[in-house]
Each structure stands twice: as C-alpha cells, then as structure tokens.
Amino acid sequence: MIRISVPFRRCAVAFASARQKLQSFFCAVSGIGNSLATGRRRAFGLLFILCVAVFSQGCAKPYGTLVRHYRETPVCCNTMADLPVEPLLAGEKKSFELGANSPLYRFDTGKSLFRVFALPEGPYPYRVTVSSYLVGDYLKSSYIFSPQLITLDKDRRVVRSTGPGSFSVAHADFLESLQTAGGFRNKIEGGLTFTGTNFDERYLVVLTTDELLRGKTAFPSKEVPMLILGSSGGFTAKSSEQQVPHAPGGMVSISWSSLSTGKSAPGAGNAETVISVPGAVSGSEQIAVTTPGVVGSSEKTPAPVHPEQVTVRLASGRTIGSLDLGKTTMDEARRLFQDNGAGLGSVRKNSTTFTIGATSLAPTQLYTPPGTHHQLFFDDNGVLVLFADGSAAEPSSSSSDFRQRYSGVRETGRIAGSYELQADLAPCVTLIAVFRTVSDTLDSALFGYTCPTR
User: Fold this and answer.
1) CA nearest 323: which of 390, 376, 381?
2) CA–CA separation, 137 and 292 (whole Å)
3) N or C: which end of the chain has fewer CB within 10 A?
4) Backbone angles phi, psi at 346, to 5 degrees
C-alpha cells in the first residue's frame, strides 16, 4: 500500500497578539506497525495516514470556540441583497472553512454562517455538489457542518431549497481525504441540478438552519482518519455507529459538474468519456469528463516513450501542459501554472513517507494547486518525485481493466474499504492505483519517481 508514515492531526489555536494570531499545528504519532517479510515480498504493517487537514485556512476551530463565535458575532447584513457574493465558474471546485472569518446572517430558518456563489449561466444541464467534512482528531470528538442549499433569483428572492434528507453520508476519496477531509474517509454530500428551466436561479447559498443545528449525523464507528492497514496490534472494526453533532461551521467544498452527454465543459480537451457517477443524491448521473487513459482499455499498454511525463489539467478539464517526474523543479512547475492563468499555491512541509515497490519515497515539500485535482510532491533537491492525479480516476474502471492494461501488476496493500495495485511503467516510474473494495472502482491514481534525482 502507499505506506504513509505520518501521525494523526492535532490542531491547536495558539496565542493572539495585537497584530496577529499564531496557530500551532501539532501532529502526534498514535501507533506504528512493524513490517512483516514473506519470501521476497515485504507485506504491509499498521500505519496511519495523517492529517493533511486544512491547507489554506489553517487548523479548524475547536467546537466550543466555533459555537462561541457563532453566538457572539453580530450578523453582517440587513437584507439578502447585501450578502457578499463570489463566483462559481463552470468546472470549478472550491474548498473553504465556515468559521471565524465567515459572515453571519439571520435567515428565515435561523442565524447561520454562510457563503453565496454566483451561478454560471450555462452550459445546461449541470449539477452543483456540496460536501461537508468531519472535523476532529477522532470520530467520537468530531463535529460536522450540516448544510442547506437555497437558490436566489436576480432580486435575491428564494426560488428553491434542499429539504431534510438531501444530504447523506458518502465516501471521501483518497485525495479528498488528504486535501480537505482531515484524514476521514466519510463525508456528507448533496447538491442541486440546474437545467434551462432554472435560468432564473442566479445565486446559490450554503448555510445551515436552527433545525439542522439541533441534529446529528450517524457515521460508522470504525471511521478513523485515513487508511489504516490492519496487522498485529491493529484496530478492531465495529459495526455500530457514532452520532456526530452538527456545528455552526466546518470544512466544506463546492463543485460544478456538467451533465451534458454531448458537450464538454468550457475549456475541456477533445478526449471525452461519458461515465456514470454512483452515489449522487438523486441517483447515478451522466457527467462528461476528460480522462487521461490511465485504465479502461482491454489491451496491454505498450511501454510509453516518456513514462516520466505526467499531464497537468485544470479542474475544468483543460490540459495546460506536462511535467517530468525526476526532472521538473518547483520553479518550472510554478511557471507552467502561471503561464496558463493559474497558480501553484503555497508550499507546505510534507512528513509523509510512501512505500513504492521496494523503495521508500520521502518527499519534503507539497503543493496543491488551486483549481486542479493534483498534488505535487518535491524532494530535498526541489525536484518533482510524486504526482497525485485526482482527474485520472475513472469511476467506471475496475481492477481487472488495470491488470489487463498493464504488465507486472502487483497488489501492495488491502484494508477495509480500499486496496492498492502498483505497476512499473519504467525502471524509475511506478503507477499506483487505489481501488474501492465494494464497487471495485478506481479511487485515485499516483505516479512516483523512485530513482535519485541528483
């Protein structure tokens, strides 16, 4: 398995001064399993995948602090016409925290932290999906923001809203867990579909209600941050549920997806595959997405001419270039994104060690470019050695497709809910695919460079 030697997240809000608030980020190792050797193949031991929690907002507030802020902070505006608005572009995905820096307004359903998004005027049909994530070190001490969605017309009058049961527990994929979900593999998710008949709905508001704040959401009690590979001394999975209280704020993401079967989203490339996305609130929906050809072919893939090259795409699906594993520097990667009107984002320290084949890969610096589904890991030399590609995942693809397409595929780890296959594309380049156990569908794809860079 992608063996990640990292600890659980423990975030603490530190001291406030006249000019700034310092926040400390403390992560403590809860337990590390021992590797077991079986023949020439090293099996996997107990490991914990950390806490790569809130990348842009810092550590989320403790529950008590969040509630106190909610109770003591006055509302921002007198009418909905005064609510601040930000755009949601076609193909865009945004992650944000509803917390100390968020405005409050007293809606008809109660006082709430909120975000308002201006909706794109087509292409129709499309769906806006909102996900809310568990916040906390452990499930029993965590909380979650339970959203309601309302749409407004150009005069800021309510057109429609989601009702009870519109949001349900859903699976958070591998990259989503690292980026936003604080290491948990479950979230709650819901959304609204927009067609040409919804043209008058110009804004979407993410908020909560007094009724939702009094409720709780049940999560499987075996839920723990990120992947845990079972071995001696591991956790015992339980089938019971944990009731997680709803909070006035939390970690949320919003994304736009085209539902057109004949047209791609603006800026999308020419290669398009129509796939069925399971688990949507209103059932399976057809979404047009671009795919990089990681899996899905029934024939073995010939050895690539340049296996170290990875394709870079924006969340809209538009290809903006390629990067070379084992060669591209941080400055070169930053130039690629900036030249295409995007950004590389801020650098973060990485303390994750990946086991790829017989090699341990320990990149030290991590970028999560905004407006993409990528994560870029660089080593001590500032060279790209690991590329995580969320846009590479084809939910309709299975492990049998992967095995048929690539030679020498090996299973490198299995846990409750997920398992991993690796395939060597070249002596220095390995493709890692994480599949969901129940549906046998691809969860995420990563490309690792295992040779010395300098």
Assistant:
1) 376
2) 35
3) C
4) -90, 150
Residues in the chain: 454
* Amino acid identity at 247: A
Q: Alpha-carbon distance 319 to 340, whole Å?
A: 10
- Interatomic CA distance for residues 366 and 375, integer angstroms: 7
Is-contact 244 221, C-beta < 8 A? no
Cβ atoms < 10 Å from Cβ of 331? 10
Question: Which span out of 42-56, 138-152, 271-285, 401-415 was modeled with the highest average pLDDT?
Answer: 138-152
pLDDT per residue as tens digits for the range 7-25: 333 333 333 333 333 333 3
The closest of 434, 432, 430 to 449, measured between CA atoms, is 430
For 92, 401, 449, 452, the CA distances from 127, given in Å and listed in that order, are: 12, 29, 37, 44
**C-beta separation of 12 from 58 below 8 A:** no
Residue range 419-443: mean pLDDT, rounded: 84
CA–CA dist 439, 161 (Å, integer):
31
* Strands laid side by side in the 186-194 sheet: 93-98, 250-258, 126-133, 186-194, 168-171
d(CA 292, CA 313): 10
Tokens standing for residue 394: 């084809």
Tally: H helices and E strands in the chain = 5, 33
Give tens-digit pLDDT for 89-143: 998 989 999 998 899 999 999 999 999 999 999 888 899 999 999 998 788 889 9
Cα dihedral: 144, 148, 149, 155 (round 10)? -130
Degrees to nearest 5, angle at CA 418 with 42 and 222: 105
Q: Given this model, what pLDDT does residue 130 score?
A: 95
